[in-house]
Amino acid sequence: MSATLRGLHQSALDIIQCPASEDSVTDSFGQFIQGVQPHHLTPTLLHRSKRMVLDSIGVGLLGSTTHVFQLALQHCQHMFAPDDVSSVYGRRGTRLSPTLAAFVNGVATHSMDFDDTWHPATHPSGAVLPALLAVSDMLPNNRKPSGQDFLLAFNVGIEVQGRLMRFSNEAQNIPKRFHPPTVVGTLGSAAACARLLSLERSQCSHALAIAASLSGAPMANAATQSKPLHIGNAARLGLEAALLSSIGLEASPRVLDDTAGVAGFSAFYEDYAPQPLTSPEEAGLRFLLEDQDMGFKRFPAHLGMHWVADAAASVHKLLLGELGSQGMGQGSQVVGLVQDILLRVPHSKYINRPFPESEHQARHSFQFNACSALLDGEVTVFSFSQEALQRPDLLALLGRVRVEHPQDNPANFDRMYGEVQVTLVGGDVLKGRCDTFYGHWRNPLTNESLRKKFRSNAGAVLPREKVEGLIEAVEGLDRLEDCSTLLAQLQ
Question: What is the pTM of this model?
Answer without folding.
Answer: 0.93
